């Protein structure tokens, strides 16, 4: 049993900061519904992210941009209803915080009140500093997200590794320091060079959670559906598949269909 599991009945933002101080790595996964979140929570995950990747993996959109605040609240409320231990962080979706800091606060309050979330996550650095400060002033824990920020995909034009050039790497460090100073409890670093991610995790004292950012950060996050092997088409280098659920589900459905067609299901013991 991990130290965190022994010591903490419920993971809080403070727990995560203690884990960083003690050198215990933080395990984070996404979840979007009651059933999966319950399994993930009982298995001992530290943080559940109700990511706007729900736009891709739940709704089938090409990007994270279309998902709405109402839809995020629906997913988040379903997750919160089954979670007993993990910290539940919810993404503010595109369009729910970019206009101004008042809108950012209003959206965050809805997520906290209507979904019962424990924290929110926003993509971006200095350009959304006002919003981050305003949300934090209201007592809502905020997680930052730097590097590849999928809500800006049409600005980047590509999902390739970010901050390989000196200027972008320097700006990322400045943004990470700003997020720490503002009071964020952690930062997700997505798809940046491992060396840079390691440098950021040494410079700032808040936990750095990587996805495609190498091993030398304070924790890791993956999209649940990807690590369970539910999407064969998505194969970035950083993804490790722990199951081939795509094949397992397909096998089960084929067997069920055959049984129904052959009148093998239901059998005598499976009826009233
Ligand atoms: O939406 C999401 O799933 C995320 C992770 C990739 C960090 O933001």
Outline the structure in words.
The chain starts with a helix and ends in an 11-residue tail after the last helix. The chain has helices at 3-7, 13-22, 34-42, 54-57, 69-82, 101-115, 129-137, 153-156, 166-182, 194-203, 224-227, 245-261; strands at 26-30, 47-50, 87-91, 119-121, 142-147, 186-190, 208-211, 219-222. 42% of the residues are buried. Helices cover 43% and strands 13% of the residues. It folds into 2 domains: 3-241, Phosphoenolpyruvate-binding domains (TIM Barrel), CATH 3.20.20.60; 243-272, no CATH class. It contains 12 helices and 8 strands. With 272 residues, it is an alpha/beta fold. Helix 7 links the parallel strand 4 and strand 5 (142-147). The site of 3-methyl-2-oxobutanoic acid (KIV) has 11 residues, from strand 6.
Question: What's a concise summary of this model?
Answer:
With 272 residues, this protein is of the alpha/beta class. It has helices at 3-7, 13-22, 34-42, 54-57, 69-82, 101-115, 129-137, 153-156, 166-182, 194-203, 224-227, 245-261; strands at 26-30, 47-50, 87-91, 119-121, 142-147, 186-190, 208-211, 219-222.
Write out the distinct hetero groups bound to the structure: 3-methyl-2-oxobutanoic acid
Termini gap: 43 Å
Biggest sheet, spatial arrangement of strands: 1-2-3-4-5-6-7-8
CATH topology title of the largest domain? TIM Barrel
- Radius of gyration equals 20 Å
Quickly count the helices: 12
The secondary-structure element order is HHEHEHHEHEHEHHEHEEHH
Q: Give the total of domains.
A: 2
Q: CATH homologous superfamily of the largest domain - what is it? A: Phosphoenolpyruvate-binding domains
Strand tally: 8
Low-confidence stretches: none
Largest sheet: 8 strands, parallel, barrel
What percentage of the residues does DSSP assign to strands (E)? Answer: 5-15%
Class from secondary-structure proportions: alpha/beta
């Amino acid at each position: 049993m991990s130290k965190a599991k022994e010591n903490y009945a419920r993971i809080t933002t403070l727990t995560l900061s203690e884990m960083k101080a003690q050198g215990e790595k933080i395990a984070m996964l996404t979840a979007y519904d009651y059933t999966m979140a319950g399994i993930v929570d009982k298995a001992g995950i530290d943080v559940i992210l109700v990511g706007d990747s729900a736009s891709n993996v739940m709704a089938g959109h090409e990007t994270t941009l279309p998902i709405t605040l109402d839809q995020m609240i629906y997913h988040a409320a379903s997750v919160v209803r089954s979670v007993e231990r993990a910290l539940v962080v919810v993404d503010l979706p595109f369009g729910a915080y970019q206009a101004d800091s008042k809108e950012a606060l209003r959206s965050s309050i809805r997520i906290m009140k209507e979904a019962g979330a424990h924290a929110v996550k926003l993509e971006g650095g200095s350009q959304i500093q006002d919003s981050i400060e305003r949300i934090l002033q209201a007592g809502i824990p905020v997680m930052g997200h730097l590097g590849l920020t999928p809500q800006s995909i049409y600005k980047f034009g590509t999902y390739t590794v970010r901050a390989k050039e000196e200027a972008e790497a320097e700006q990322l460090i400045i943004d990470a320091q700003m997020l720490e100073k503002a009071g964020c409890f952690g930062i997700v670093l997505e798809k940046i060079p491992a060396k840079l991610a390691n440098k950021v995790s040494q410079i700032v004292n808040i936990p750095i959670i990587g996805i495609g950012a190498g091993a030398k950060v304070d924790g890791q996050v993956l999209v649940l559906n990807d690590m369970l092997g539910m999407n064969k088409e998505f194969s970035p280098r950083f993804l490790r598949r722990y199951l081939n659920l795509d094949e397992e589900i397909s096998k089960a459905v084929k067997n069920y269909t055959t049984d129904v067609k052959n009148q093998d299901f239901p059998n005598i013991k499976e009826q009233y």
